[in-house]
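PROTEIN DATA CARD
Card holder: GntR family transcriptional regulator
Chain length: 249
Origin: Kribbella ginsengisoli
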Amino acid sequence: MAAATGRVGGRVAGADEAVFRPVRAGNPFEETVERLLQAIKLGVVGPGERLPAERDLAARLNVSRETLREAIKALTDSGYVESRRGRYGGTFVNERLPKARRVSAKPFTREQGADVDDALVLRSALETGAAEAAASRDLTGAEIDHLRSCLAETSAAKLADYRRMDSRLHLAIAEVSGSPSLTSATADVRMRLNELLDAIPLLAVNLEHSNHQHEAIVAAILAGDPAAARQAMQEHLSGTAALLRAFLT
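Structure generated from the sequence above:
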C-alpha cells in the first residue's frame, strides 16, 4: 500500500513533492518562480499559509538560497507573498492574490489556438488515467479524508476562489493515484489549462454542474470502481473542453 497523502504544516505532502521538485539546469531563477507560482495558483499553499523554510525549499528545488530569495522577492513585488520576521516568521502567501489577467478571446485564439487542443488532449489522457488509477488503489484513511476535504472546499468555494480550489481537487485526485510522476504532470498541464480558462468567463450554472460531476468522480474513486471513475472524469473534462472550444475557436 502506498504511503498516506496527508497535510504537513498546512500543505499536502504529495502535492509538495509534485510542485517543489528540482528545477532543470539553465534557467534556475525563472523555473523557481514557476514552481512557487504553481504551488500558489494550484492551492498547494493557500492564502495565509507559509511556504516551506528557505533552507528546506532551496534544497528541494536544488537551487541556491540566493536564487530562491530573488524568486521570492519577485513574487513579493508582484503581490503574491509577504515575508514576516520573528520567531513565527517566514514567507507567507497573501490573503488576497492578484487577479488573473483576462485576455480577449479572439486575439488569444489567433496567437495560441494550437495550445487549446494540445492541452485538452494531454489533460484528458492524464486525468482520466489518474481517476482510474486512484479508484484501483486501496486508499488510506488519510487519502480518503484528503479527497473529501478538497471536494468540500471546492463545493463551498466563492466565485473568486473557485479556480484555485477546483485545481486543488483535481491535483488531489492525481495525488491519490499513487504516482508522483503523474501528479507532477497533472500540475503542469493544469497550469496550462488555467491560462486558457482565464480567457473565458466563469459561469455560475457551469460551476454548479461541475460540482455535481466532482461528486460523481470522487464517489466512484471511493467506491473502488475504476471504470466509473474514468467515465465520470471524462464526462467532466468534456464539458470544460466544450466551453473552451466555444469561446476560443
